[in-house]
Write a structure and sequence with these properties.
Alpha-Beta Plaits; alpha+beta; 32% helix; four-stranded mixed β-sheet; two-stranded antiparallel ribbon; disordered C terminus
Length: 496
């Protein structure tokens, strides 16, 4: 058992209001500079929709992530041999038009335009070329375009639905959308790390954050191809790749990442998960119908004495173990089983989990009477406005049973709390809903508490960084066994 710690995240989609405050907070701190204008380390997409960059989920186009080869996995579109073949022309890498060409406006024209009968305008100017341009796309261009032929109907996750199911989704009375905020998943099996010929990408040992060493990056851009979530970007000005760093300078000082701290809907949770690194290879190569369960088996019980013992032997600090025991992520993912990974079929074992959106009830008005379609107030999850096949394509590699189970648990909490606060539902229905998912009322109350009433410190359980230990490792010139503190027998190369 190789016990390690990983900073992990949960996004509760029922709470996201699509305000993009998280995106702007990240943009203002990290990517508001030349060459990074088009980068959105945090972006909020509308589902159904094509996302950012366009159709990033379609790996037939971009060849990102890993693919199963027997009992192991290999990179789809990157790696030593595949990368060498595409070294001068990579057809699987997104181009600027798949994102958008960043622009500003020539505001000076508003003041220098000659006098005339027409109203002067500030023409858009490309931030890349400096030339006048016609704006064709922008960040979150499909935002709130639910039902539109150009965006919502082009969603890759609709492919597994029948024609009638697709058409039903876009009927006016059934039409819906929800938001999908995305950042780097800081995966346990990151394809970007495995693809980099320069070894510039690495995963920090103390917290699992995936970073790019700017000194070692040689702009191969294999990480852009390999990341199936397209969260590695190329800076055309510096000639280096960049990505979300989970605001690790903030974490090291006990602060939440900027996008977490600024979130208006308070949808974001951050905490430590202990995991068994020995299981990564097996889990990433699991069959599609076992992918989610295999990943969940990697994460360990932080209260288990044997796990605690092995964690200590592996150098995990007691304060980190305590943080794992208090982690809201552990509760959502392992204890309550309410959060699922995004596209586990990419086999990167992402550490960002999502609580699916439990959509509002549908109803009709007949003869002036409001008629709910549910037995009491809400409809069953089987008649959800977003079909289970669609949600399963997003969160469970097509396993509708896994998503249905999560949705039923969420519905049980909703029914229970309605009964507590309003009392207008049938008690037998509430009891049966809780019984069906084997949930106690106290558990439902705890879920409601962490979802709706949690304090800042309950949502973000940040372990002490213990940077003094990392500094000792850097300063260590070797011990009696010849180790350097990096886990290597020799001193690392300059720039590691």
């Amino acid at each position: 058992m190789d016990v390690r710690s990983q900073v992990s995240m949960v996004f509760h989609l029922d709470k996201c209001i699509g305000c993009h405050t998280c995106s702007i907070a990240c943009k203002n701190i990290w990517t508001d500079r030349k060459g990074a204008e088009y980068m959105w380390w945090n972006n909020v997409e509308t589902k159904p929709g094509t996302g950012y960059p366009t159709k990033w989920e379609n790996q037939d186009i971009y060849k990102g992530g890993w693919e199963k080869n027997g009992d192991t996995v290999s990179l789809k579109g990157a790696g030593k041999f595949k990368g060498l073949k595409n070294i001068f022309h990579n057809p699987h890498m997104p181009v600027l038009d798949d994102y958008y060409e960043p622009w500003t406006y020539k505001y000076q024209d508003l003041f220098t335009a000659p006098e005339g009968d027409d109203q002067p305008t500030a023409r858009p100017v490309s931030l890349v070329t400096g030339e006048h341009m016609d704006v064709q796309a922008g960040p979150n261009w499909d935002d709130d375009m639910g039902g539109s032929p150009d965006y919502a109907r082009q969603d890759v996750n609709l492919e597994k639905l029948s024609a009638s199911e697709k058409e039903a989704m876009f009927q006016l009375e059934r039409m819906t959308f929800h938001y999908l905020p995305r950042i780097c998943n800081h995966c346990l099996n990151p394809a970007c790390v495995g693809s980099c010929p320069s070894g510039a990408l690495y995963k920090r040992g103390e917290d699992g954050i995936v970073l790019i060493n700017q000194e070692r990056c040689r702009a191969w851009r294999m990480c852009v191809t390999a990341c199936p979530y397209k969260k590695s970007y190329y800076n055309w000005n510096t000639g280096k790749s960049e990505k979300c760093i989970l605001c690790y300078p903030r974490l090291e000082s006990g602060q939440a990442p900027a996008c977490f701290h600024s979130c208006v809907g308070r949808i974001r949770y951050l905490g430590v998960m202990l995991y068994d690194a020995d299981k990564i290879a097996t889990a990433s190569a699991a069959p599609d119908d076992r992918l989610v369960d295999a990943q969940m088996d990697i994460y360990l019980d932080p209260f288990d004495p044997e796990v605690i013992k092995q964690a200590r032997l592996n150098g995990v600090a007691d304060s980190t173990i305590t943080a794992a025991q208090n982690s809201p992520v552990y509760k959502f993912v392992k204890v309550w089983k309410l959060a699922l990974p995004l596209h586990p079929e990419f086999r990167t074992l992402p550490n960002l989990f999502y609580v699916p959106a439990l959509l509002p009830t549908m109803a009709t008005v007949a003869d002036g009477v409001y008629n709910s379609t549910s037995k009491s107030l809400w409809n069953g999850v089987e008649s959800n406005r977003l079909p289970m096949k669609y949600l399963a394509s997003l969160f469970s590699a097509g396993d509708t049973g896994k998503v249905t189970e999560v949705m039923k648990r969420l519905m049980a909490v909703r029914l229970h709390r309605r009964g507590v606060t309003v009392g207008d539902l049938n008690a037998a229905e509430i009891s049966q809903a809780l019984k069906d998912v084997q949930m106690e009322p106290d558990t439902a109350d705890a879920i409601f508490r962490l979802t709706s009433l949690a304090t800042f410190d309950e949502r973000f359980v940040i372990p002490p960084a213990h940077r003094e230990e990392s500094i000792e490792m850097l300063e260590n010139t070797g011990d009696v066994k010849g180790n350097t503190g990096f886990g290597f027998k020799q001193k690392p190369a300059r720039g590691l």
